[in-house]
Amino acid sequence: MEVIGFHLDDVLDLAIQMETTGAEYYELAAKSTPQASARLMLNGLAAMEKAHKAAFISLKDRRGIGAPAGDSDVDATVSSFLASWLDGEVFDRDREKTLEVARSGAMAGVLRVAIRMEKDSIALYTGLKEYAAADEAEAILDGIIKDELRHVADLNSAFRELK
Q1: Is residue 23 within 8 Å of 121, Cβ to Cβ?
Q2: Sign of the alpha-carbon dihedral angle for 36, 38, 42, 44
Q3: Residues 24-40: pLDDT tens digits?
Q4: CATH number, domain with residue 36
Q5: Total-model pTM
Q6: How many structural domains comprise the chain?
Q7: pLDDT tens for residues 65-117?
Q8: Which residue segment(s) compose the domain that 14 sits in?
C-alpha cells in the first residue's frame, strides 16, 4: 500500500534491516569485549533484536500494517517523517561506522552507539504504529517499543557503571 509517497513495505524493510544491524552490532560487540558481564548483556540484546526482526517479517508477510490511521494531520506528519527517514535525512545510518565501533571493544563507545540505535528504533516504530491496521499489529509494535525503551534504560545503566 502506498501512503503519501512511499510504501509501508519499504518502512518494514527498514525496520527489518535495523533489527538485523542491531543484532549484528551486539554480537560483534560481545565478541570484542573481554568483560563476561558485558558479553552476556550484549548477547541478550542481540537475541531480542532477532526476535524483533522476526516480528517485523511476520507483520510484513501478514500485511498487519497498512491502513492509515484516519486523522489526516497525523497521517501527513507521520508520512512526512517516515519518508524523510527512508531518504536518510532523519538519522545517520552508516552501518560500517557503527560496526567499527562494535569491533573496537571500547564499551563506552559501544554503549553510546547502542543507545542511539535504540532511540532511533523507538522513533521509527512509534511513527510506524500510526499505520497499524490491526490491534494485533499495534500490540506487537507496542511490545517492541517497550523492549527498546527497556534496552535504553539498561544501556544507560551500564554506561553509568563505566564512569
Answers
A1: no
A2: positive
A3: 999 999 999 999 999 99
A4: 1.20.1260.10
A5: 0.80
A6: 1
A7: 655 445 455 556 666 666 666 565 445 567 788 888 999 989 999 999 999 99
A8: 2-162
